[in-house]
Amino acid sequence: MKSVALALAVVGVLAVAAAAQDPPKTFVEARGSVKPVPLPPGGPPARMADGHVDFSGVWFPGPTGKANAWSVVPDEPVKEDPIPFQPWAREKYDAMTRTEKELFANANVQCLPPGTPGTFTENPYAIQIITTPGLFVHLIENNNRWRVVHTDGRPHPPKEELEPLFNGHMVARWEGDTLVIDSISIDERTWIRDGWFHSDQLHVIERLRRPSRNYLQYQFTIEDPKVLTKPWTSAWRTYSLSANDEDLTENFCTNNQQVGQLRKLIELEKSQGIQR
Amino acid sequence: MRTMRIALRTWRPALAGPVFAMAGLLSATAAAQEQQKTFIEARGSVKPVPLPPGGPPPRMADGHVDLSGVWFAGPTGKANAWSVVPDTPPMEDPIPFQPWAAEKIKGMSRTEQQLGNAQVTCQPLGVPGMWTMNPYPHQIVMTPSLFVHLIESNNNWRVVRIPRQHKPKDEQELLFMGDTASRWDGDTLVLETVSLDARTWIQGNGWFHSDDVRIIERLRRPSRNYLAYQYTVEDPKVLTKPWTSAWRTFSLGSEDLTENFCTNNENVEQLMKLYQQERGNR
Amino acid sequence: MTAPIAILFGFVVLAAAAPARAHHAFAVEFDAKNCADVTGVLTKVNYENPHAYVFLDVKSPEGLTEEATFQLSSTSNLRRGGATPAVLNANVGKEVVVRGCASRNGEKHRYAASFIKLADGTIQRLGQDVEGIFGTKIWR
User: Fold this and answer.
1) CB contact A163 to C (< 8 Å)
2) What is the domain range of residue A176?
């Protein structure tokens, strides 16, 4: 199926770049394919009555203010430091098969709570944030989850009063125009991402800023002295305000067939002695 | 092993508040049926004390009542799941089921009812299920243009723009939360929901609905410490006429919602065993 | 179910719905007429939803050790009632008494718990008052 649409001009570039490795492909014009157009900054960010930046809005990963899961332009790889695993942790991570990582690591596969920072990092879908003075409310489509954090700079309770929670115990404070969310006591069944497990000493520091009306930026730091040799900080990730004033859509995990399938695969792998 | 502290208590309905008065009335009638029981003083038991009204409700910048807050079922502003005073049933009309619907519900064994109950199976509670099938507290976060409803049960949320029209019929799809139109009627927030997935129930007793059901919910905050909720069900395929609930009372709490993810549901398996035994016995 | 449905389920529909509603759910799976004080060593606490669970090692009449499973209320109710993970976990390895009502489906040693007497003698509520022992009049 050949097409002379403008889209081909864009993907034509990709075809050329990939040509060295792959034979020439036939491109298909399909409804749903997205040609990403980044939003302009849109002016200064909104502010609440107390003067702090207002993060309220429906936000999409990436710069387009729209879902770009089916973008015809690949995402730019984010430049980040390698994960500074301790040797024992590196061994454990490397020993996981891809299927194990997929089944046990990814909360979305098992429809488990994504945790912190999973609510942002294990989530390719739109999010909705509502901030009011003193409160940060974070809604995600993935299995209809929410988290609420007080932003008045209150401390964590003493250690003896804490218990492991999927989201951990979260508090937040403002550092200028950046909201800093500090989380501890996170259930060890959650994963940072892609097989990156953690200990009960995990300490997550998330930073959110809204440099302009249309853009949200998110960064997180992982401290885990039992698993890592040193703290690790992600790159800043870009989110953009819904260009079409969309709402979040419903997304309940009511028919998860993946788990059964993946378990079968793991059994197969084990019986065949497949390691990686 | 009777080394437990035993306290024999009789309830005096002398304390203020309708809760205690009703409890006294009920205990008089129930006394005839029950023998004197040994009572146990256990940590966690709750002696309910209703909150005062607390003054006028707060308002948002646009003048509308602000429904924001953490709300507990009942008048105490706290969890009362383990209240030593039984709940008083609200006065409501009988549900006007069509004969076939009443038959269907009567035909469900208790076990089948449990297996169809979203609270038991950890399925989305839907509308009005988020209120009617949920004994845990709610959090409402409200702005002039947004109504955000968070519940502990399975960490569910619901967001409705204010004001909002329904989507055009040809754009609607059946959803667990349905499609909700919203408007203010004076100080009452009115939410009208259609296009509801038929897997949700109106109440946990098996009251199912058709996909043509229309739910009208009303929320008002008569005073700072109280929230009142009422719902109407219109379902011409299941009911003989519309039905409206009593107003239900919620009260302002000072706590946060706690985490409640459904990650270890053993009930379904246990109930399925029971169900299979029941079927084997028929 | 001979009672008119509406009146029967009137109880279930309360604003403060938990006790009546839970009776309904409780009575399906567990038998409120088949309850006992179960003594054993607390071995594990599973603090999850929709129901938390505790496990006791109990001695059979023959002297064998068997595991008893107790279903508790939700963590929402447990926390607010004082049965926090810290309180329960502090009793792991110790002898406790749990008041439980047996499962109806024939599973051995499976109960719904209403209270636990901790090692220090404190009685902590864990669930609904299905026997009316905490002072709540039961309806069914």
Assistant:
1) yes
2) 57-85+113-241
CB contact under 8 A, C85 and A163: yes
In Å, how far from its chain's centre is CA A34?
20
- The structural domains of chain C, ordered by start, are 5-125 (2.40.50.140)
pTM: 0.82
Residues A133 and A199 in one domain: yes
- pLDDT tens per residue, range C82-130: 999 889 999 999 999 999 999 988 888 999 999 999 999 999 999 988 8
Burial of residue C9 (number of CB atoms within 10 Å: 0-12, 13-18, 19+)? buried
Whether residues A194 and A73 share a domain: the answer is: yes
Q: Which residues of B touch C97 (CB under 8 A)?
A: 1
CA atoms within 13 A on the CB side of B145: 7
Residue A160 Cα, gap to closest chain C Cα (Å): 8
Q: Tokens at residue B249, please? A: 């009372």
The answer for B 218-237 residues in CB contact with C (under 8 A) is: 229
Dist CA B124 CA B72 (whole Å): 20
Q: What is the pLDDT of residues B63-101, one digit of tens each?
A: 999 999 999 999 999 998 888 877 777 899 999 999 999
Evaluate whether residue A237 is within a structural domain: yes
- How far from chain centre, in Å, is Cα A199? 20
Mean pLDDT, rounded, of chain A: 85
Residues of C with CB under 8 A from a CB of A: 47, 84-86
Phi/psi at C127 (5° precision): -165, -165
Can you give the C-alpha Rg of chain A in angstroms?
21
